[in-house]
Amino acid sequence: MTRTLDSYPQEVRDVVARTREVVSTLHAELPRWGLVVWTAGNVSQRVVVDPAGPGEDDLFVIKPSGVTYDELTPGSMVVCDLDGNLVDGTRAPSSDTAAHAYVYRHMPEVGGVVHTHSTYATAWAARAEPVPCVLTMMADEFGGDVPVGPFALIGDDSIGRGIVETLLDSRSPAVLMRNHGPFTIGKDATAAVKAAVMVEEVARTVHISLQLGTPLPIGQADIDSLYARYQNVYGRTPAATDEPATSPVTPTEQESTR
Ligand SMILES: [Zn+2]
User: Global pTM?
Assistant: First the structure.
């Protein structure tokens, strides 16, 4: 039987409350950056339950299903376990909950997941074509091409499985699920939202470049060097945070396990 939130320790309930605020606030970034229409798109963040680190007993906070962005509040966010069961909330969880849960179950280093149908990234997904790494910012952020995942129908684990199998094979925090759209991951939900914004931006820029001619590839050694510099010097040093329990894995560990 699924546990209710009341049965979790106070420290976990406190992290859930803060995570509800974070996830609710981050949903406003999706329309702000033009990534969603109507109620499509969702953000989630893991809540680590065991002080020893992420595991199968973790929870995550995600958007409720079918609620418009203007109506989202911390209190309307729902809490699920990693099997996708509702643990707390007054509404049904997002219809993409099973995919988010699958990612958290199989990628313990992931603390945040975002899904949108943003226009340009989804246009590449419709053609099942990876976005080629032809921009230094792509080398920085994605470490190479943005890969395409398999066609998968909603309703079982196939979307989650396709996301995980594709991302484990890549340095990219974004995957374009074929005929569907982008899913992005990060050490927390903020990082996953950033990846969702960035994947749309590079999909748009490379699309425009293709209209003008042939974008020039970047050599693999240069991609590797850009990626290493950006990830180690700039980006992923553990930020000072008041929520250490939600992102206990350091960036270095994250890279080495992916
Ligand atoms: Zn979708």
Answer: 0.89
